Amino acid sequence: MSTPIAVAIAGSDSGGGAGIQADLKTFSALGVYGASVIAALTAQNTKGVTAIHEVPPDFVSAQIDAVFSDLSVGAVKIGMLSTAGVIEAVAAGLVRWQQNNIVLDPVMIASSGDRLLRSQAVDVLRRALMPQALVVTPNLLEAAALLDTAVAVNEVEMRDQAERLLTLGARAVLIKGGHGKGPESADLLVDATHMIRFASERIATRNSHGTGCTLSSAIAAGLAKGHDLADAVREAKNYTTAAIAAADRLGVGSGSGPVHHFHRWW
C-alpha cells in the first residue's frame, strides 16, 4: 500500500496559521503525508510579521535532496521564497528530482500587508519557477505584481491576467478572487484551452489568515492522491471554504486569526 506524499517548500509561520504550518495541517486533514523544506523563517503572529530570517540556499538544497532522495513524492507545493538565491536553489532541486506536479503559490505579501518577497526576486520567480509549475495560484494582488499592472476589478480582467500569466510558462493559472468584492468569491482556473469557474459564498470573517497557503496545499494534496487538476482544485476550494466558515470557532490571537484546518474533527 503506497502512502500519498506531498512536500511543502515554504516559509515557517511561528504563529502557526500560515506557511509550512498551514501546509502540513492541510495535508494531514486531507489524508496525505506531509514533508517540508523550510525556505525562510518568520517571526509572525496574527497581527503581523516582525522579522524574517533567510535560510541559506545551500541548506535549502540539502533539505530538498534529503526529502526527495528518500520519499516517493506525489506533489509539491511552493510558498514563500524570500530571495533570488533560494528561488534558484528550489528551481534547480525540482529539476534534479524531476518533479511535475508543482503548485506554485507566489507568496509576495502577507495578509497583514507585510512584504515577504524581495522585489528583485520577482524576476527570478517568473523565469526559474513559473515554467516548471503545473499551476500557479496568485491572488488578485499577486497576479498584478507578477504582471506589473493594475489589480483586476472583475472576472473579465481576471481571466485576461490569467491568460497573460500563462505566457510566462505555467501550464495553468488559478487566479483567486478572495480579495475582490461582491457576494461570491470566484476563482478562475485557466489553461491554454479552457476556463473553469469555482465560486463560493463570500464569508464575512476577519479570521482568514493562511487562506492562500491552505488552498494551494489542498490542491497539492489532491494531486498527490492522483486527482486531475480540475478535481484537485474543486476539492481544495470546498475544503478551504469550509475552513474559513469554521474559523470563528477558534479563538487564536488578537489579530487576523487562522482558518480552521481541522473543522471536520473539532
Number of helices: 8
* Overall helicity: 25-40%
> How many beta-strand elements?
9
SSE run: EHEEHEHEHEHHEEEHH
Q: In the CATH hierarchy, what is the architecture of the domain at 5-136 and 209-249 at level 2?
A: 3-Layer(aba) Sandwich
**Fourth-tier CATH superfamily name of the domain at 5-136 and 209-249:** Ribokinase
User: Beta fraction of the residues?
Assistant: 15-25%
> Main β-sheet: number of strands, strand sense, barrel status?
6 strands, mixed
Mean pLDDT: 94
| Category from helices, strands and their pairing | alpha/beta
Q: Strand arrangement, largest sheet? A: 3-2-1-4-5-6
**Based on the structure, what is the oligomeric state of the protein chains?**
single chain
Determine Rg (CA atoms, Å).
17 Å
Q: What is the CATH top level name of the domain at 5-136 and 209-249?
A: Alpha Beta
CATH topology descriptor of the domain at 5-136 and 209-249: UDP-N-acetylmuramoyl-L-alanine:D-glutamate ligase
Alpha carbon gap, first and last residue? 29 Å
- Low-confidence region ranges: none
Basic shape? globular
Provide key terms for this protein.
3-stranded antiparallel β-sheet, single chain, 266 residues, 6-stranded mixed β-sheet, UDP-N-acetylmuramoyl-L-alanine:D-glutamate ligase, 8 helices, 22% strand, globular, alpha/beta
Topology (SSEs and partners):
Blueprint: E1 5-13, H1 19-29, E2 33-45, E3 48-54, H2 57-68, E4 75-78, H3 84-96, E5 102-104, H4 122-129, E6 135-136, H5 140-147, H6 155-166, E7 172-176, E8 184-191, E9 195-201, H7 211-224, H8 229-245
Parallel strand pairs: 1-2, 1-4, 4-5, 5-6
Antiparallel strand pairs: 2-3, 7-8, 8-9
Helix pairs in contact: 1-7, 2-3, 3-4, 5-6, 7-8
